[in-house]
Amino acid sequence: MNRSEKVEAYFAEEHHYKKAIGILRDLALKTDLEETFKWLFPTYTLNNKNVLSVCKFKNHFGIWFFNGVFLNDPLNVLENAQEGKTKAMRHWKFHSLEDINETQVLGYIREAIENQKNHRVLVPSKSTKKVAIPELLAKKLDNDKKLKLAFYKMSDYKQKEFNEHITSAKQEKTKLRRLEKIIPMILRGEGLSDRYR
Fold this sequence. Notes:
Elements: H1 3-12, H2 18-29, E1 34-38, E2 41-46, E3 49-56, E4 61-65, E5 78-80, E6 90-94, H3 102-117, H4 135-143, H5 145-153, H6 156-167, H7 172-188
Antiparallel strand pairs: 1-2, 2-3, 3-4, 4-6, 5-6
């Protein structure tokens, strides 16, 4: 399925928020944004730069603004998309069709577009700080030269993702299970989040 087919399938799928996300889509398409499909969601771009995504979940639906941190937010509706992890993305959640005020939503979308045009975007800082390799992974790397070579060929970002994936598990058995899952990925040169990019 190509991207446009994925977008159509997303909006055609029977879901209790089907009509509501259709309205959000129509609002995005009233602008200069290009519609595509990334990270399992319809995403709207300007000059190939992500501006927003329309999303649906079990208990809410909404819009992700990729650089929402720069929006004025006069209605005080934006939330950090993932507290502690995302710095720029903001999420506007809705719980019913009646929550959508088209004029207000379009105002936020237009401001997000203007911010993108004016390059008001958060550029991630290049951290020189290395994340410590968890002991379990370090032992595997020491005992497998091929794995060690593959791991150190990866970008710092990908290495950090794998390190955090293991250290964020609370139980030892979960850490071991995660370690076994990532070994083939490392050998293939595949990052933990590559399939979402």
